[in-house]
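Query form — protein Extended synaptotagmin-like protein 1a

QUESTION: What is the three-dimensional structure of this chain?
INPUT:
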Amino acid sequence: MPTADAEPGMSGGTAISAPALPSQPPGERALSVLWSFAKCLAALLPVYLAGYYGFSISVVLFGLMIYMGWKHSRLEKVMRLKSAMYLLENERVFTTEKAFRAKGDLPPWVNFPDVEKTEWLNKILQQAWPFIGQYLEKLLVETIAPAIRASSIHLQTLSFTKVNIGEKALKVVGVKAHTEHDKRQVMLDLYLSYAGDVEINVEIKKYFCKAGVKGVQLHGKLRVILEPLIGDIPLVGAITMFFIRRPKLDINWTGLTNLLDIPGLNAMSDTMIMDAIASHLVLPNRLTVPLVANLHVAQLRSPLPRGVVRIHLLEAEDLMAKDTVIKGIIDGKSDPYAVLRVGTQIFTSHHVDSNLNPQWREMYEVIVHEVPGQELEVEVFDKDPDQDDFLGRVKVDLDIVRKARVVDDWFNLRDVPSGNVHLRLEWLSLLSSADRLSEVTQKNQNLTNKMTDPPSSAIIAIYLDQAYQLPMRKGNKDPSPMVQISIQDATKESKTCYGTNSPVWEDAFTFFIQDPRKQDIDIQVKDDDRALSLGSLTIPLTRILASPELTMDQWFQLENSGSASRIYVKIVLRVLWLNDDATPTTPSPRPSAPGPGMGQGGITSELNPIGPGGLGKPQPSRPQHTTPDPEFATEGVLRIHLVEAQNLIAKDNFMGGMVKGKSDPYVKIRVAGITFRSHTIKENLNPMWNELYEVILTQLPGQEIQFELFDKDIDQDDFLGRFKLNLRDIISAQFSDTWYTLNDVKSGRVHLVLEWLPRVSDLPRLEQILQYQSQQVYHNKVVPSSAVLFVYVERAHGLPLKKSGKEPKVGAEITFKGVSHRTKICERSTSPRWDEAFHFLVRDPGDETFTVKLSHSWGQALGSITLPLKEVLFEPGLVLDRWFNLDGALPESQILMRAMLKVLDTQLAVCRRAPGDAANDGSGEEVLPRWVPSHLDLRHRSGLAMADNANSAGQVKLTIGYSMEENRLYITVHSCRALQACSKDGADPYVSFILLPDKKATTKRRTATKKRDLNPEFSERFDFDFSLEESMQRRLDLSVKNSVSFMSRERELIGKLQLDLDQIDLKTGVTQWYDLVAETN
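ANSWER: The C-alpha cells for Extended synaptotagmin-like protein 1a are given below.
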C-alpha cells in the first residue's frame, strides 16, 4: 500500500516527501500537463455536446447528479477499506486506546474459553500469502481465462492484465471447536476477516473494455466439518465448508465496473454477488470436498436436519410510532410487520394498520441444519409506501430452543428505544418410527393459526443419486436430464447433467409433510427443455411408513421410459415430535414491571373479592346493574336513499368531442370517515340507482356529508360534480326528498331521500316497520334496519386463571352478524373492568343474536355468552341490564353488561289499526301516519287499502319531463307495486305504452319482462325527439301486461293508465306513483 494510507502517529514511521516538480524530466512534465488538459476537456465535452445538439440543461444536471453520487460512493468505499486495513494492522494499539467493544469485535489476541486465538495460523497465512497469490495468478491466467475465452465468441480476446492479491493476508480471528455432538466428526467454526488490497484487472481488447477489482472486504463465520473420521490416511473422508449466515461483503470496483458504484447499483451488485456465494456456501448449501472414494457425497452435502423449529409470532408491544404528523410534533402510529430469517429461509408476516401493539398470531416452520450456530432473527418494520421504517430486531440462538424444547417469552427489540416481541418457539425432534404419527396429526388438527397451511406432521429428505440407461433423444442423441420432484403443491428441481443418458446428480431435497398417509412423491425425469419426458415415478408415502426406520434406499424402475431405465433414490421420512405437551396457541404473558397500583410480579394490587382461581363466592357488594356514561346510546342513524340523477355531463366523447357520447356514472358518499360507493350505470346521463345506505352517527357540530359523482373509465375516472350537506340541517328537517344541484360542473342534479331516524322503544311500532321494510326493494340488495343495538360491557368477575397459574390479561370481543368489536386488554386480573360501549344495526331483532367472548390476549378462551335479541324484546323499555353467566368457564364466572334496543321509526312506514280495533268500531279504515309529506303521496303506498278506487290494479312509478338541453321528451318507468296476480304463480309483468295520437305506432315502447314479481323494478328510460309544444299535445296511453304464451288462458292485461302530458310541468319533471285501472268486463 502507498505510504499515504498510513495513519499519523504510528511509531517507526518516517514521512517521505514527494519529489519536487522541477526534478521531473521535461517529457514527463509535458505529459502531465497534457493529461490535466485532457481531463478538463473531457469534463467540458458533455456540456458542449448538450448545447450543440440542443439537449435540455436537465440532462446535464442529471448526469452531474449521477457522477456526484458515484464519486461519493467511491470515496466512502475507499475510506471503509482503508479503515479496515488500518484496524487489522493496529489491533492492539487501537483496542487498548479505545474502550473495549462487544465480544464479537475483540481482536484475536484476547482469549476466551470457547473461542481460541490462532495467531500461529495467521502467521503461516501471512508467510504463504505471496505464494498463494502466485498459485491464484497461474490458475486465473492458465486455466480460468482459456475456459472463459472458449465459452463465447465475444470473449475470445479476454485476458487478465494484472493479478495481485496484495500484501494483506486473510485473517482467522478465532476458532471454536465442537466435538461433543458426534464422535465421527470434527466441527470447527472459523471467524474470518479479510480487508485486502487485492487488485485484479480484466481486459477484452475486441471491445476496448477494461474492468477490475481493487480492494475487497469479507467478514463471516465459516464452519468446517471434517467427517467421516476413518482409520486410514488421510484420516478424514471429506471436508465440508459453509457459512452459517451470510458474510458481510464490500467490493471496490475499477474500470468499467466503476458503474457498479453508482448509488442504487452498488447495493444491487453486492447483493447479486452475495446471492451467488449463498447459492454455494451459505446454509443449507454446502461445499463438500471428498478425500476418499465411495462416499455418499449427497448425504454429506445435505445431511438430515438437526430438527425443526415451529415459530409462533404472537404479538408485540410498545413499538415506536413512525407515522408522525407535522414532523413529529403530533405522534402517530405505525403499520408493523415482521420479517423472520433462519439461514436462507425467510418469512414475512402480514402488516397491522395503525397499531403499536400488534397481534399477528402467525405460525412458521423452519428446518434447522446446524446447532449450535444457527440463529432466528426477527426484524420489525413499519409498512410505508416508499421505504419501510426500522422498528427493531431480536436474535435467538436456536441451540437454546433445542435444549429447552419450548421457549415462550417476550424479547426486547434491539437498536431502538422501545419495543418487545412475543415469540413461542418449539423444538420438534425427528422420530424414525411412525408409532406416534396418529398422535401428532391429532395434535395438529387442534392447533389454530392464521396461516393457510396447517402444521406439518413430518419431513422427508430425498437424496437423488443417479439414473441409468435413460431413453435417447431424437436422432439417437444423448439427453440432458434433470429431475422434478413434487409433493402436493411443492415442486423442486435438480441440476441438469448435460449430454448423458446415465446422469449423476447427487442432489438432496427436503419437504414438509402434513399427513404422510395421504400424500405421494411424484418424480419426473425430463430433458433440459422441460418438454421431453424421459420417465416418471410415483411413490406413495405409505410405502415408506412400512419400511424399516422409515427409509428406502434402492433402485426404482422408471415408468413411461426404457425397459432398462432406472433411478437410484434414497428417501428418509421423519415424524416431527414435540416433547412438551404445552399448547402453542396459549402463550405466557409478558411480565410487566411493578408500577403505581401494581404489586409484586406485576399483578394488580386491588383486592380480589374471590380467592385464587375464582373459587370463592361473589361478594354482595358487587353492583347489580351497569353505570354507563351519560353519552351512552345517544347516537343516531342516518338513512340515505340514492334515487337517481339527471342531465349529467357526457365525458365519453368521440373524435375530439365532435361526436357526443355518454358517461358511466357512479356516486361516492363520504360521511364520518365512512365511504359508500354506488354501482356503475353504463352509458347513461340520467342514471337510476335506487340504492340505500345506513350509518350510525354521533351528533357532532360541523359534520358534513359529501357526495361526488364520477364517470367510470379504464384509466382515470372523470369528475361529474359534487355537493355537500350539513348533518345538522338533516337532523333538523328529520326528512327530505329533494333534488340537489351538482357544483363545479355545468349541469347535473341528484335526487336523494334523506331521513334522520327517530329512536323509540315502542314494540308494536317495530312490527309495523318490519312489515313496511319487507316490501322495499333496492338495487344494492340492502334490507333496511329496523333497530339499533347498543351494548355496554362494564366488567367481569370470577374468571379462570391461565394454565400457568397466573392471572390473565382479559379482552372482550363482541360479535354481531359478522361484525366484531374488541375492548381494550386489561392488566392481569380475574375481575377485569372495561367500561366500553358498542353499537350495531339490526335487521330483525326477533331472529338475531350477538356473542361476547372473553380471552387472554386474544388467545386462550376464558368464557363466552350468546344472547338472543328476543330476550331484550321482552324486557321493559327494551333494556336488559344484569350479570350473565359465562359458558366454557368456572361456574361463578360472570360478566356485567347492558343490551339496549332502539326501534328506528321511519316516517315512511304508515300506521294501521290493529285488526281488533277495526272490528270494534266496524270500519277498517286506515289511521293516518304522524307525518305525511304531500309530494310523496303516501296515500297510495302498498300498505294501505285503496278504498277510493275499487278498480285499482296496483301502481306504477313514472318520471315524465322534458330536457331543454337535449330537446327531448323523456319517460322513465321505475317500478310497479301491488299488482294483481294473474295466476297462482303471480304474474310476469312488463310495461307497454304509446304517445297518442300516433297513427303509425312510432312511439310505442315496452320494458323488459320480470318473472313472477308483483313488485317489479324496471328503471328504464325512453327518449322522444319532440319539441316542447308537441310534447304537451301528447297523451300517454300505458298498460301493464302479463307476458303469456299464445295458448295460455291467463289474463294478459293487468292495468291501464291514461295521462294528458299538458297536465304535467314537463320543464321541471315529475316523479310520481300513478294508480292503474283494472280491466272491466
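ADDITIONAL NOTE: The first helix runs from residue 26 to 52.
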